């Protein structure tokens, strides 16, 4: 009668005996929503069996068609309390709720920057915590954090190590936690969930890029913030002119990058070296580096990128366009940086904070040709943000989309033609927008 | 009342009207088996909605636990006959059966090497065809073929273009076809379905290699044939000594490769060049090529690999080991071949035939460092054959596992250390086998 | 007094002794041309020392400036005859000539398809053979072949294994052989030798693509044949429309590819599937394959590509454009082919022959997204043919350019945008050509 | 009479006229050393012509054999002073000295952190600067820096932006600078210069790894410091046990890495998760992350890695081995870090400084599976340090070796088997060392 893996190993009788003897422990969980076609029910059954548990479906109602929600009530059994606990924690990530509801357990942080033992670690899914019988949303949604509860204010917030102060009340265990996992939309108009995560090299990309342009347009129309994360290859491949157009047209609200992005941009503007490199391999030697160093020196002498723009030292390029258009940017430092430029935040923790402060309201993120920044920013975004990764290396794309949600799309392609085509599509959308505004 | 995508677009009313007017067509299909945890039900609902159809679940019984099978009866609706037909064809690939059963439709091949229009194209899943009210299994299971029916003999067989003769009766449409898709095993002891398709570079591989060794051992014990498909990198990286051991120990029943595999092996044996290359970059120039050409010439002069072994010209190496141990091999030609060696089958169609003839009974296939042969052989194997792909390029591995079934595993790693470790594991298994035989 | 590696190992004394005892052997070689700036002299000295020899520069004249040629006369010493012989053979590949000139040695082929032992293996450099005191050019220039001499006709020709008939006179050893290695041009207008072999992902490519367009234009103007080798990714990524334009405009004289190239093209034209795939991942499953099979069947039923075009079955696409414009194409088979289409040459050796027959007069070769065909065709071309490799995988590009000569260029980029941009450049060149013709 | 590119364009006459009119400028430079076989002379002539100059060889003496040095005296001509200046600066990087020797020019830094305009940018080659008629070596040798001169102390030192204080005297222009480029050794025993930069996937690696082990052994015997730079893949692939052995045996003097390296190590030790992951793909989800967060929390609670080792919280693993053996390590922060661990230097500039302070005396650097740290550390090392890069991605390896010197070697392979084999070789060397010590 009992199922799954354990049964298969022919120990069904012993298990029945164990339960009879009170040695098997169980918990009843409930699932609601599009649990069939969002693959939630199968995943839940999988998790139970994969981690040594067993299940009995007590009740199931399947929505007759797509829009109807479904419901399942499942008894989960495991041989030990620890194992059951581990399984239920996993099931919570898929939206499972334990039937007998209890408040979250809290413990005080033992020291500044240190969580209490067994603190609950958040995911990038919308999360609620039950305090005093009430469910409170944990804000902001950010993964790999703890949850600090302010009982007086009735508030629960995610916190990173550096935000923890001794004595703060932090959620421990996973009792009283409810996760609301992203479910697939019932319509199929959205390229970010409609497509597989990973667009291979062999696929035609024009139609996909056209759809991405539409999503960017939709984000702007709906007032969502558009974040661009750019690696220095954007400048080196000559793609920055396209990105500048996107900024000019109002399609970029926020630009994240590293010192190298700005340095290559400034060098390109001041010395035209990237152009000079075009047909001149030799320029890759010492003299090319010298230009880079002089570009940095020029900006440092001017007091920074913004000052260099104001003083007329820096007239063109990606960074000047940001400054002129008032686009917020964060340049984060890394150990391979030269200089760095004055605006660069060299401390990694400070740079993370600066990025976190600015990403509120972002609904679409375009990550281009940078693994380091893409992973850093990716871990700061809630699961619902539409995220595009563009990189020419299939390895980088698989790494990035490995952690993917329904809302992520990886594109293996060259960044310069990608941005050229995206800009072309946006230009068409702008044109039809205008003509429709007129009429 | 109607669900899905169409409904969402607010055309429910029109659809209801259409059906009322007899313009909507529908068919009732059934699903049986582990349709929840093998993800079959969700995929079926997905296919219906993705292709413009709609569904109504008429009956559903979910197995309470893992071993119990489930059942679903679904009414599929679409606006046109063509669309419904297309959907039902897709659902058949997931094991769906149409309730009102009918015989398959047959048409005569119009010419040698040409199928009738609208011929049914097979997949690599076990397939049955209903003829005269009886279900006959289509043999052998091979994808991208047509189905030829011999009504008198009550036999249905897959056939490639070159096997078709004018007048043969071929299945057209998809009526009367039943596919039995691979379902995930209820136990979790099998690495080939337990793991994700794709093992990334960052993962520890020792445990996985140990499991693969056990699978190879199990295949041998159960009398399944073990197929090795090897690229020339196996020889070039110095890994052939490991493969030779596997052959000596009886772990290889069949070796598929190209001319280059054998040429590199012979050159290595006769001139030690791969070893000579070790610390000698210069040998990559003309003289290295000369050795290759002379190696080919020597084997041609001897009348082929087997003759060269018999005459004592070729004493060692991979090919000599195969000849001495009587291992069947197929060397398929390609346009970049030098020579080629006499045993090489230069005609692509003939080489495919030779491989097809030999793969009957193969239960495990190890594909190493060759994209071309891996794809060619992969398309000849039924879905149930456990298939391992090893390649150092993540791009190659994703390409190969893209078409993957539950029984496929891709490993991104260097072939020489992989084979060294695999051989080490097999040696341990042999040792414990012997000691257990003794006791 | 003696230098090099041997000396460094502290065996100078012994070597001096050996020579005194007449056990050291030596030969005097001469080098002529741009031996300094084509790096020939350094390479020659390197080869001598790397292979256990030693040298003494007896005379050297360096051209004072770029256009002046230089001359060096070098005594090469080695401890044994075999070693000296090996060294001198290597030096010949760099253009070295032995001072005391002798005729080439000939031996009769022992059997059909078998060279005599120690046959000279050609490179892709222009080669001369001294017969009866006269130097004869070996034609055609093709690597990895033997040299057959027809003394009566005073002709020397390269021959592959399959061209050898018993009794033919073949050059053995390397006496009497003179190689004329490609030297770098003194001007720097040529992108194929001016650039490094390998253009990395980070480099801006527009300027390079513009230069490639100019080279293609120059080839056409000078009457050189333009060869395109295309993988199926050209069609799959939607790039075939660009290639069709190039054909229409007269920029393609010869198209080499595989069965898959033509099959994808036909499927695209007949079923629009590649477009259908655009936003429809699901189409990658069985039904996508069915379209491919039906496309093949349609062409087979029509009697081949050319017939399908004539009958109006195939109206558009890459293959139809070739047929309509009378462009010569070779489709070579491989073991992963479906079908194949009637025009495909399934035998690898026959396909090589067909390609060899057509490549005479080719001055520029564009190899796109196919490793197998690129390597196969690359080994058929003389060193002087300008060769471009385009592939998105840096691994493929390094493999291809590894064997590179001064005339090869590898570009790591996406094929669709590359061809789009190249076609754009060619369009501009056409426009300016026309306007200059008018005025 | 005049050569090169300019001449080819048929402007020889005009050039002669220009010079006659005093509009051509020239400078005489000298080259000494192994300028032929270290390819210095060809590169110098190349640079001149590539940048619009012209040359006349006034005198040349070629060493008759390998050990003899050569000498060349060349007149370089260019149409303008700026062009000539640019060319001579480039030639200096190849060791060229201007015949009429002058002192270096100095200018005061205009502000803290800002160099004077036109400051000389260093390379990673040994560099001398002429001050008061005397040549002073610039120390330490570090690329992409300026040169600060302390005339009173007779000292010249490289300085980064952050080390510059207002008023410091900095070298501007390139007069008075002499670079001593690495020349290839005359012996061929050194794998780091003997091999091509880039060892491809197809090559056998055992012999190379054996040679690397010998170099590591030699470095230790000669008292050179051995630096290991490790990415977190070293731990994730299960390779840290090998690295721990190397540390135990005294083969590592210095370990550089990031927060992730230490976090993965600690997580592995405390929770065995990397092992738990082995056969358990699901552990990649939320719970795996939770272990990582708890590992960080544990070390933070203990007050850092060193404290955690002392308190017995951390008993094993890479970091504990470093602490117990007193091995110096630098953990540099990055924006994708979680935590971070207390020892991590989160400020990029501070981390650079910490690394620079420790690398004095390093003679061999092994960089494993980390692009970011490899590039950062690579830019801090003088050209003479033997540098090995190991990475499974050919793209990463080409990027790293692009900037390569004679002393760099890139190996495309899997890190775990690489380290296993390297450790095996070192074990053998240790064994033979001991036995030879005994006897």
End-to-end gap of chain A: 69 Å
What is the oligomer described by this structure? homotetramer
CA gyration radius of chain A, whole angstroms: 26 Å
Global mean pLDDT of chain A:
84
Number of strands of chain A: 18
Q: What order do the strands of the largest sheet of chain A run in, or round the barrel if closed?
A: 12-18-17-16-13-14-15
* Main sheet: strands, sense, barrel of chain A: 7 strands, parallel
In the predicted model, the low-confidence regions of chain A spanning at least 5 consecutive residues are 1-20, 278-286
Helical content band of chain A: 25-40%
**Tell me, what's the shape of chain A?**
globular
Strand content range of chain A: 15-25%
Helical segment count of chain A? 16
Chains forming the largest contact: A-D, 62 and 62 residues
Structural class of chain A: alpha/beta
Write out key terms for the chains shown.
18 strands, disordered N terminus, 16 helices, seven-stranded parallel β-sheet, alpha/beta, homotetramer, globular, about 450 residues, five-stranded mixed β-sheet
List the helices and strands and how they pair.
The structure is a homotetramer of 439-residue chains.
Chain A: H1 4-20, E1 25-33, H2 40-50, E2 54-61, E3 70-78, H3 81-92, E4 97-98, E5 105-108, E6 126-131, E7 134-139, E8 146-150, E9 155-159, E10 169-172, E11 177-180, H4 191-194, E12 198-199, H5 206-221, E13 225-230, H6 233-236, H7 240-248, E14 254-258, H8 259-271, H9 273-277, H10 286-302, H11 305-310, H12 317-325, E15 328-332, H13 348-358, E16 362-368, H14 371-378, E17 386-391, H15 394-401, E18 408-412, H16 415-438
Parallel strand pairs in A: 7-9, 12-18, 13-14, 13-16, 14-15, 16-17, 17-18
Antiparallel strand pairs in A: 1-3, 1-4, 2-3, 5-10, 6-7, 6-11, 8-9
Helix pairs in contact in A: 5-16, 7-12, 7-16, 8-10
């Amino acid at each position: 009668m009992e199922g799954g893996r354990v049964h298969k190993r022919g120990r069904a009788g012993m298990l029945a005996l164990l339960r009879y003897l009170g040695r098997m422990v169980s918990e009843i969980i409930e699932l609601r929503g599009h649990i069939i076609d969002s693959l939630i029910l199968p995943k839940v059954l999988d998790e139970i069996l994969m981690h040594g548990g067993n299940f009995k479906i007590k009740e199931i109602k399947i929505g007759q068609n797509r829009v109807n929600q479904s419901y399942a009530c499942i008894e989960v059994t495991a041989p030990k309390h620890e194992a059951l606990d581990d399984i239920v924690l996993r099931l919570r990530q898929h939206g499972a709720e334990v039937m007998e509801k209890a408040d979250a357990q809290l413990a005080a942080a033992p020291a500044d920057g240190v969580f209490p033992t067994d603190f609950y670690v958040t995911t990038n899914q919308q999360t609620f915590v039950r305090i005093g019988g009430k469910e409170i949303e944990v804000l902001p949604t950010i993964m790999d954090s703890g949850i600090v509860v302010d009982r007086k204010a009735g508030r629960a917030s995610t916190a990173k190590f550096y935000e923890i102060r001794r004595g703060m009340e932090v959620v421990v265990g996973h009792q009283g936690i409810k996760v609301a996992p992203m479910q697939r939309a019932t319509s199929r108009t959205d390229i970010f969930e409609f497509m597989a995560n990973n667009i291979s090299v062999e696929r035609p990309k024009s139609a996909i890029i056209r759809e991405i342009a539409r999503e960017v347009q939709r984000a702007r129309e709906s007032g969502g913030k558009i974040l661009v994360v750019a690696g220095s290859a954007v400048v080196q491949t000559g793609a920055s002119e396209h990105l500048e157009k996107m900024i000019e047209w109002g399609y970029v609200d926020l630009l994240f990058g590293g010192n190298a992005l700005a340095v290559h941009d400034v060098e390109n503007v001041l010395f035209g070296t990237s152009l000079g490199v075009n047909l001149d391999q030799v320029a890759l030697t010492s003299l090319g580096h010298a230009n880079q160093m002089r570009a940095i020196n020029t900006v440092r002498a001017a007091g920074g990128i913004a000052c260099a723009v104001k003083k007329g030292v820096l007239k063109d390029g990606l960074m000047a366009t940001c400054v002129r258009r008032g686009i917020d940017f964060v340049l984060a430092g890394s150990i391979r940086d030269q200089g760095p430029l004055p605006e660069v935040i060299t401390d990694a923790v400070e740079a993370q904070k600066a990025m976190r402060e600015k990403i509120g309201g972002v609904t679409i993120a375009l990550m281009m040709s940078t693994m380091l920044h893409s992973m850093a920013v990716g871990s700061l975004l809630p699961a619902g943000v539409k995220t595009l990764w563009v990189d020419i290396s299939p390895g980088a794309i698989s790494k990035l989309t490995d952690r993917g949600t329904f809302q992520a799309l990886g594109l293996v392609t060259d960044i310069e033609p990608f941005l050229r085509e995206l800009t072309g599509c946006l230009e068409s959308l702008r044109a039809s927008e205008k003509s429709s505004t007129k009429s």
